[in-house]
Amino acid sequence: MLMNQGESDYTGKLERAAQLLQDHTGPVVLVTHIDPDGDAIGSCLGLQRTLRFLGKNAQTYASVPRYLNFLLENEDEILPPGVVLTPETLLVVLDVDSHDSKRVEGVTLEGTFPNFILNIDHHGTNVRKAQLSIVEPAKAACALMVAELVALLGVAFTRSIATPLFTGISTDTGSFRFTNTNSEVLEMASHLLSGGADLGFINESLSQTPHHMYRLQAQVLGTVEFLHGGLTITAQVNTAMLETVGASWEDVESLVGVIRSAEGTELAVLFKVYSEDSVKLSLRSRGRVSAQNIAIALGGGGHMAAAGVTVNASYAETRARFELEAVKEFSRVGMGSGL
Ligand code: 5GP
Ligand code: MN
Description:
Elements: H1 10-23, E1 28-33, H2 38-53, E2 58-61, E3 78-79, E4 90-94, E5 104-105, E6 116-121, E7 132-135, H3 142-152, H4 159-172, H5 183-195, H6 199-206, H7 211-221, E8 225-227, E9 232-238, H8 239-245, H9 255-259, E10 267-275, E11 278-285, H10 291-297, E12 301-302, E13 306-311, H11 315-332
Parallel strand pairs: 1-2, 1-4, 2-3, 4-6, 6-7, 9-10
Antiparallel strand pairs: 1-5, 8-9, 10-11, 11-13, 12-13
Bound molecules: guanosine-5'-monophosphate (5GP) and manganese (II) ion.
């Protein structure tokens, strides 16, 4: 069995992953995180199409959000979560820690770990317990890592393979605007475009906002508050609001992006009030404070600029806990005076 190695040997590990996939003759199952985003679905589709091109039996299990359906070439290209693994299965877990059973979707891992897990992820909080864990927080998107793997597999970027991978990179870099947009990102985007990634189709498809989203935004923007002397913007969304406008939780994913550009703020938080005792926080930072530190303190994780956590408490208690941790984080970076 392959053993974990130090994080430094990124290319070596990616080469091992390529070899592993080349040599594997059984089924390959691909899964990702709950509430999958463009990076999650783009990474799965890019790798699945590559593996199928190589003649492999590869299948993704995920719940594709409606706004990403345009990436699918046919209805059953991605199957709903709930796969039963056989011992011959190679499980590939993308854009999430394979051992975070609350976050992995598609397969129930508790007690039924397959013989081999290949985990490709860019979250620093990953516990790196897969047989082959390739975790690189410096990578802007999991799809960027998958694109590098596809290149190592010797498969050319075609429109079909490059379009989902480009979508993943574009999504996780805020359409090439966030500070994780480095030269490596732009170089890979360029390679993917050369291979046929359809930028016009991607952006046109992503900018088809359903009408009820405007009514939902109006509700959510009505809850906006500024805290910490204007350094933090918060908003909340609950089930009643969704029902009023005919929206679903899937529609909520993009809303934190609407509040994060408030002038003078360093931190944006959307409270998703699932129920009386379950609240999800989506945290976004402009880079001076760590959204990740706040999420970790509350039991979640993510990246410095974008992180999340689900707290099993009321909205009022969750908010109080958040405010405490946010003040600590502002203080840590020397922005705490007067808060
Ligand atoms: P979002 O706010 O869009 O759900 O998530 C932002 C980032 O934080 C993503 O990279 C996501 O993977 C991560 N994240 C969100 N919720 C959780 C959570 O409950 N636990 C962990 N470990 N990461 C999370
Ligand atoms: Mn990602």
